[in-house]
Design goal:
Blueprint: H1 2-13, H2 15-23, H3 43-74, H4 79-109, H5 133-136, H6 150-154, E1 176-185, E2 187-188, E3 198-202, E4 207-210, H7 212-221, E5 223-225, E6 231-240, E7 243-249, E8 267-269, E9 280-283, E10 303-308, E11 317-323, H8 328-332, E12 342-349
Parallel strand pairs: 1-11, 2-5, 3-7, 8-10
Antiparallel strand pairs: 1-12, 3-4, 5-6, 6-7, 8-11, 9-10, 9-12
């Protein structure tokens, strides 16, 4: 029996290694007429293959042991030998049922559980290795602070909604400033334990009970998504008895200061005394930043819009809207966009 297990381990772990070492071979130089390998594997593919091979071998081993136990049971008259043969058959059937039922249960719960994938999501790829050459056509180390790529100036300016008239103190078009950044997002009720010690008071008088910690976070972020999918947005109207007033909105990411839809990786909250609401901004440090697939994918062109305000966003502060909490740390880890880092910002255009 020990030889059986030795052979089993060898087949499962060493043979696939040899196979994938061959299929992953990359020549040091290109040669005409030589085709790329038809199969490309990696550690994730290796584990998925191992799982399939192990289930197959378990089934074959079970059949072999059932046959061996049956032969032993039929070809001997000794009571002990018959009992041993019967035990082999029972153990083999039990092991086969255990292996197949484990796979069946996991596959029923979520088929993705059985798929190993160690690839890094493209939203976090090359976090600190973006290449500004694609945008500026020059060595990024020699790009002037106020430089703006040509394509940015060609993008039409379309204010989102009806922003208020700019304040007299707001920066003018083409002026540049440095703003210390933070990030904000839609708060999710699903991230908290269920509770009813907190209350959302809607502008229509309706109340919704929720976890008090969740309600406090929602008051900070400004937008709340409840378990049933309802999206609540903080109303800039007034407070009611010390509690915030909220409104329901059909926009999945909430609304900005002038009831304009917020857009992840495009909207920012600003101090309207410094940046006019509705302004089109170019934030140099965000050029090349990976955009999550759910928001369109690709790389950021550095263009943002002043769609919102915040009680803590005063003077030289800017709050980047990242949509979901899971992207707060991703954006914060991007080169030059860390928490409270100064971002070089140019007013490309603004409503008048």
């Amino acid at each position: 029996m020990k030889y059986f297990f030795t052979t089993f381990i060898f087949l499962n772990f060493f043979i696939p290694t040899f196979l994938y070492a061959q299929t992953d071979y990359v020549p040091l130089a290109d040669y005409d007429g030589i085709l790329e390998p038809a199969i490309k594997g990696g550690f994730s593919t290796y584990l998925n293959t191992i799982m399939g091979i192990m289930i197959a071998i378990a089934a074959i081993a079970a059949v072999v042991m059932i046959v061996a136990g049956g032969l032993q049971y039929m070809t001997t008259d000794a009571v002990n030998s018959k009992a041993d043969g019967k035990k082999k058959i029972t153990s083999a059937i039990g092991g086969l049922i255990l292996a197949l039922s484990s796979w069946l249960i996991l596959n029923t719960i979520n088929p993705n559980i059985l798929e190993f994938d160690f690839k890094v999501d493209n939203v976090a790829k090359e976090v600190n290795t973006y290449d500004l050459i694609d945008f500026f056509g020059a060595d990024p180390n020699n790009i002037p602070i106020g430089a703006i790529p040509d394509f940015v100036n060609d993008t039409p300016f379309t204010p989102n909604g009806l922003p208020p008239k700019p304040k007299a103190t707001a920066l003018q078009k083409n002026e540049e400033t440095v703003l210390r950044n933070t990030k904000y997002y839609v708060s999710e009720e699903g991230d908290f334990k269920k509770g009813s010690d907190g209350t959302f008071i809607l502008s229509n008088g309706k109340t919704i009970k929720a976890n008090s910690e969740y309600v406090r976070l929602a008051e900070i972020e400004g937008t709340a998504r409840l378990l049933d999918g309802t999206v609540l947005n903080y109303s800039s109207g007034s407070r009611s008895g010390g509690n915030y007033r909220w409104i329901e909105t059909s926009n999945q990411y909430g609304l900005g200061n002038y009831d304009n839809p917020l857009t992840p990786y495009r909207s920012v909250a600003v101090d309207p005394d410094r940046i006019a609401l509705g302004s089109k901004l170019f934030i140099r440090e965000t050029v090349g930043m990976p955009i999550p697939v759910e928001y369109g994918g690709g790389r950021h062109d550095g263009i943002w819009y002043a769609h919102d305000v915040g009680s803590a966003i005063q003077n030289d502060r800017v709050d980047l809207f990242v949509g979901s909490k899971k992207y707060e740390s991703v954006v914060g880890s991007y080169k030059g966009v860390g928490h409270l880092n100064g971002l070089h910002t140019v007013i490309l255009d603004r409503p008048e």
